[in-house]
Amino acid sequence: MASSSSSSSSSLLLFLSLLLHLPSITSSNIITIPISHLPKNPHPDPHQHLSYLANSSLERAHHLKNPQTTPPHANTKTPFFSNIYGGYSIPLSFGTPPQTLPFIMDTGSDLIWFPCSKNYQCINCSTYHNTAKIKSFIPNLSSSSKLLACLNPKCALLHQKIQCPDCKLGSKNCTRGCPLYKIVYGSGTTIGIPLSETLHLPTRRVPDFLVGCSVRSTHQPAAGIAGLGRGPASLSSQLAVKKFSYCLLSRLFDDTNKSSSLVLVGGKDSVKKTKGVSYTPFVKNPEVPKKPFSTYYYVGLRRINVGGRRVKIPYRYLGPDKNGSGGTMVDSGTTFTLMAHEVFERMTGELEKQMKGYKRAEEAETLTTLRPCYNFSGIETPEFPSVTFHFKGGAEMALPLENYVAPAGGKNYHVEYDLQNERFGFKQQECN
């Protein structure tokens, strides 16, 4: 979700809801942790809610490809719930004694941060979230909470080319602290102090873990964010995770009591293919001076079929160029799949051709800002053309109907980020 500076036009951003893992624990230790809900969205009108999700997705897509400012930058199972605004959350415990808070899983950023101190400020967060109910971490209640020193190697995980005036390497008398971090997301920002804390997992304690103590945020959800990107400060990097996976729960655009497992795989054993999972190799990240681009997970989308017909899309819109523009990335922080205008028009044009027998719902398109929309009043069983994404290596993702027609619900997806073998995997399965 975070980003840095520059401008480039996006090609296709394949936003599949998140997938997470935790630390390296022996394969015999499978940990399940219950997930708590975040505040519900107050909008009962499904059109308003759908429009909110669509706009949030567009903001994030624009931010990922047009970053504004440079951000600071065994096996485990934990269940997670989908939340009203499209994200997924898990609880993590920090401090001594442990303080447990909800975190949104984000494959598009690195730093793990939580709302921090009794004076935590969240500006313009009350529209969709009750700030009075935001749970904050209290450093004064933790005996293991420490400010991160400027010379601490973990400070360099946040700030590239960090300089510590008046401090000499190896000096024991240097008291200068690690600089504040500022992270910019698609819809807001967060600012805070780097901490060294103890992360508690059901069967493992991880001391000296880098975490952000955010004291001021804007337009943020009522929870912290756990970055799972490729950067060194991410949860997966700090825990030396070799693979993380989870099952994508379909959503009915409301909060749900259903949950599924979040799995992190570490240890010394090599990661093997999972039975029934189709894999496509990760695409090498663009080598451009934009730190966020090195954080994202790119895959090689080769073509899109609608109703069995190949959509004619020039390849230049599907692969990243030398400047970092274009390409297809998998991101957990957005509800919808976002496409560049050139890709979207070609795909929807083919879909509209195959659905010309149905009446367009122009009012719904105006209310939701989405298209195409159709009126199926009086039609008991409407027919929809299939949609299939074809990836490098032969992997095919045939989207269940509920994944591209709203409202959704039904068949789910198991997703894997195999970091050791540099590949992305998926298969349809029931998450419960």
TrEMBL record:
Entry keywords, A to Z: Aspartyl protease, Glycoprotein, Hydrolase, Protease, Signal
Alphabetical list of Pfam families matching this protein: TAXi_C (PF14541), TAXi_N (PF14543)
Active site: 106, 331
UniProt key word Glycoprotein: yes
Signal peptide as annotated in the record: 1-28
Domain Peptidase A1, residue spans: 88-432
GO biological process, one term: proteolysis
PROSITE patterns tied to this protein: PEPTIDASE_A1 (PS51767)
Gene Ontology MF annotations: aspartic-type endopeptidase activity
Presence of keyword Signal: yes
Entry superkingdom: Eukaryota
A GO term from the CC aspect: extracellular region
Alphabetized PANTHER family for the sequence: OS07G0603500 PROTEIN-RELATED, PEPTIDASE A1 DOMAIN-CONTAINING PROTEIN
UniProt similarity note: Belongs to the peptidase A1 family.
Protein name: Peptidase A1 domain-containing protein
